Amino acid sequence: MNKKWYYDDEFWITYGPVMFDRERNRSASYEIDNLIMLADLKPGDAVLDSCCGQGRHSCILADRGMKVTGVDITRPYLKTAEEKRDQLNLDIEFLHQDILDFRRESAYRAAFNLYNSLGYFEDPDDDMIYFKNVYDSLMEGGKFIIECTGKEVLAKDFRDCFWYEYDDFKIMVEYAINLNWTELETRWIFLKDGNETDATFRHRIFSAMELAGLLSGAGFKTIEFFGDYDGIPYDQNAQRLIAIAEK
């Protein structure tokens, strides 16, 4: 893979059926409806879906009355998102752009980064550039909503290897923690029709306090953490890390 490996459309095309399976798509309404309540968003609010992928969250946000901009670097995913938008007759602006380069001064009431879409930049300093761009793109009082697997949750439930079947795929997943718990290495092995596809990628992982430090450094004033979409505390029972940071 090249330096910015996430530019590789073939990678995302190959693994898209597993990342965006039927259950994942069905869960989008539940996720967005709960996040709308947690962030106190209203119909008519302008929102940014950063790393929007195939548009599963963008479409729900638009259906709930939001004015949505979706940004992603993977063109085939955006094509799928645009097809969904058109089928549902929704008004969504989709942009093919690296989120590191996207910034609209005070344009949005909220910005979303969902489904473990943090930590993929080669240079860790780019995380702060991205957060500052989001901060600048929010109006005063705007909120940045992040959903990912926090270090605390990962450590509690860590499995280094498992496999499962999905449609006509057999999938083996291997995980490893690298660099003193700063990086998660993921290896996916797909078996289909006697053929094997193997890919490994890495991304940075964050604890709640590490994420709070980044958000504070970008200028956010108030930061709340939750342990699931229903707003439970981020404690030993947390299922995921949800952060809501206010400008």
TrEMBL record:
Domain Methyltransferase residue range list: 47-142
SUPFAM superfamilies for the chain: S-adenosyl-L-methionine-dependent methyltransferases (SSF53335)
InterPro entries according to UniProt: Methyltransf_25 (IPR041698), SAM-dependent_MTases_sf (IPR029063)
Record keywords: Methyltransferase, Transferase
One annotated GO biological process: methylation
Superkingdom field: Bacteria
GO molecular function, one term: methyltransferase activity
Pfam families on file: Methyltransf_25 (PF13649)
Record-linked PANTHER family: TRANS-ACONITATE 2-METHYLTRANSFERASE-RELATED (PTHR43861)
Protein name as catalogued: SAM-dependent methyltransferase
